[in-house]
Amino acid sequence: MSRAEIVRRARAVELLVFDVDGVLTDGGLYYDENGQYAKRFDVQDGLGIKAAQAVGLHIGVITGLDSKAVANRVNELEIDEYVAGRVEKSTAFEALCERHGVAPYQAAYVGDDWVDIGPMRMAGLPMAVPNAQPEVLQVAAHVLSRPGGRGAVREAIRLVLFCKGCLDGELESWRKGMALAKAASRRLNR
Predict the structure, then answer these.
(1) Fewer CB near the terminus (10 Å): N or C of the chain?
(2) In angstroms, how far is the first alpha carbon of the chain from the final one?
(3) What keywords are assigned to this protein (predicted)?
(4) 33 to each of 14, 58, 68, 69, 190, how far by Cα in Å?
(5) What residues are paired with 9 via a beta bridge?
């Protein structure tokens, strides 16, 4: 797909939907001696999600597993939509689009494995992490350079914000917010 076509599709995006294992996380399951498992999330991905929300984009997460760790992270980031325990993701993706009044061509979907192919085929901007399964890479309009759990979500969001012309403005908002926070801290510490 041409760069111009990717830009055109990214400009239309109003809803960003992410898989969890292999996209929001590195795909690893870390088990402790009691059989409980944990997941690792990238803090930069979280800030990217907050930036997307700040410009009015909706965020959705669809995952095949039902994990308390994921539910906690989704809740912490105030993500609009969380669908857990769904291996068949196409109907969940359609429902997310309907709930937000977004046509599938106005949605981006980032996946890595076979269960993501259905919604990726429906999305206007299907993206994949670089270590995705070969069949997923074939469906992707854009392959990210960062792996899952290591900045892929942030990269996808940056692409959409850049193409929509929002990236510089959002960065400036964060800079101003940090400057105000530092000034307030200095006043409190006097």
Answers:
(1) C
(2) 57
(3) Hydrolase, Magnesium, Metal-binding
(4) 43, 38, 18, 17, 48
(5) none
